[in-house]
Amino acid sequence: MNLPSDTTNRIFREETQPSMHRRCHDHDYRSISYYMITLSKNPAFKPAFCRIFDVSFEAPDFDAAKARSNALTPGIKRILLSDKAGTAGSSVPGSSSRDARTTCGSLSRDARAASGSSSRDNRAACGSSSGVIPAIELTDTGALIRLAFRDFFKIHPMLLLKKIVVMPDHIHFIIHVREYLPDHLGHYIGLLKHTCSRYVCNPLNANITKSSESDKDIFPVFEDNYHDRIIRNQNMLETERRYLDDNPRRYLFRKMHPEFFSSPVILTIGEEQYAAFGNILLLRKLHPIPVIISSKYTEHQLKEFETGWREATREHKALASPFISKAEKSIREEILINGGTIVEILDNGFPEKYKPWGRNFDLCMEGRLLQIAPIAYNTSKTPLSRAKALELNSLARRLCQHSASATVLRVRSR
What is the reported pTM? Predict the structure, then answer.
């Protein structure tokens, strides 16, 4: 079992390559804090943790789910619908009541056919502006892992499980360290991972709290190490809660629109290479004038540019810009409100396993966003300097110029 140590943390600090497993070198991982933790499934462990589906098209079988759950793991619901802290999180993000979720989920295909309502009507009735109403159905493995989580946090009261969302190949959860820990947080995450593996591999003896000799032969359910995000204030806590709630919806979107959520591709613009994520087809209809607002523009010039950008939006042209200044961001907002598409120039590369979230995720799902960034990803955030801003503006201009020529702009898979 891999447990972080002072030596391990020192290695993390000395690494120069980006890593999803690096620890914050100036943070005391024994202190009273909140964390969002991600555990990824061991690639060699084949069973999925759950199945995520759209209840607009497939009604959950609550009776069968309850029977299976009670037989295997009493008290752990196979289909997760609760939104209370310390439970599974919302399987229908955006819904405010359990009754609404149950009503949405109970609309079977036959019932919709009989009533003449379409899936779009059903989604609208359920209050899902995103177009999908996700639900999570745990597999036997997922149910045993949820049971392991419940029992683990019962015997470690200094750690409080605030929220957990089980995904097919990973688990997100938020914990509150309520008192100063005797050991590094990683020690307890390691124990939790081992507990989950023990429950999955030997469910009959899962509730035995002490490890035995047979534990040495247990196959690890999770990959080595883990990802943590330190939650430093209430706003960040609410942001992470929303992120966890939105995970099932995001998962379904990625499955429905893989063309907009594939790994970043490499763009060659002139002799320079950049990474791109999103709807790469937007380059074919890129407007030749980027959205760049200079303080040197006269009022007349600015009005002419704004008129041109609005006309391009009406003609379904994509507009490119780093959208740095307040005025440029205002134009970006106007473009998106009017159903337009944008190519956004970023000042940093894409991290490992990058996926946009929030509004950008929805824009990718709708095919209305392409992000272009440097190949390299820097883990540390640096203020945007004037020189860097001018460089990004220059890239936006070159992109708009070269996108019209297929011989200059070349795209290939990363």
Answer: 0.64
